[in-house]
Every structure is written in C-alpha cells, then in structure tokens.
C-alpha cells in the first residue's frame, strides 16, 4: 500500500458478513478518496490491516473491480482505478434516460406515505450539510434517487444505474465541497414537483440536476488532474 493510506482493523464478524464488511470499508475509502485514484493496494496488506483472511478481501476486490473502482491485472499490482471522464459522462447519460422516466412515473404513482419517506431523506441531507458530513450527504443523495425508482415500481432501474456510476460517484463527492447546497435545492424542487404530481416540472428538474456534473467535472479535473485518465472526450 502506497502513501499515507490508513486502513482500520475490523471487529470480529460472522463469517458470511466479512466480505461485505471489507467491501463496504474499501468502497467508502475509495469514494472519499482516502484511497485515491492510482493508489496501489494488495490483498495481503488489506487483510493484515483489517484483521481478516485473504478470501473476503479477494471477494471484495472482485466486486469493486466489477463496479469500476479497481483495476486488477494478473502478475501486476492492483490499483484504484483513475477517473474516466468519458465513463462519467456515459453514466450521466444512462442516469438521465432512466431517472427522467422513473420520476415521471413517481409523480403519478407515489402516495402521501411515499412523499413522507422522501421528505425524511431530504431532512437528513439538510442536517448533513449543517454538520459538514459529505459522505452521509452523498449516501442520502443515492438513497433519495433509489427510493424514487423503487417507489415508482422500478427498483431494477437503480441496479442498472448503480452498476454504471462508479466514476461518477467520485466526481460527485469532489463536487460537494462547492455544490452540496445546489444539489440539495435541486432535490427539493424535484420533491415539490413529485408531491404536486407534476411531471412537467419533475422531469426537467431531474434532467437539470443530473446535468450539473458536466460543468462540475471541468472544475474538478482542473483541480485534480492526477486523478483522471488521459483520454479524448466527446460531448
């Protein structure tokens, strides 16, 4: 393991949950850039640092590689994947296509109980901003979007999104330093439209919200060039 990366030991866990716990811990550290793009990590080092055997680490590495967070090459070091701007924009395209439709359906199908559940998530986001807890804010951001899909009757849509948004997640995390209030206000506008059962407001509101990353990534790349792949990007 390179640099000053710190991995905390895990408490004793039931065996079936060890791989999930390792995955969750690594996923959070990659997302928060405690494990930055390009960092080299090994099964041996992670297993030792977390106090587990190599098998759950190997399982977690595989899951993270399938999501696009790790690059695993035989006989070479495993690295945290650098951010691909083209992958970010592809994920944004997929999310917009899917979530524009799910939010339209949500306007027509969601009940007052569903509205209350979504409002509770927004209350949590508001508090996370006040307490300066960006990882919690981002987790609630994902929960808000996922619940719209699930409550609209299309939870499978979120699974497709989740499989395609790894690079987008790290850019979103970096954007929170300057754009969390804007993201929250977008959510409030979308929520207002859902509650009013107004897809003509909800759909463009969701599109605007998800499109913000296209401008944010320009600033983020300029400030963190070392995190990004060298590539030509088509708009």
Automatic annotation (TrEMBL):
Pfam families: FCD, GntR. It comes from the Bacteria. Coiled coil: none annotated. One of its GO terms (molecular function) is DNA-binding transcription factor activity. PROSITE patterns: HTH_GNTR. CDD domains: WHTH_GntR (cd07377). PANTHER family: HTH-TYPE TRANSCRIPTIONAL REPRESSOR RSPR (PTHR43537:SF6), TRANSCRIPTIONAL REGULATOR, GNTR FAMILY (PTHR43537). This is FCD domain-containing protein.
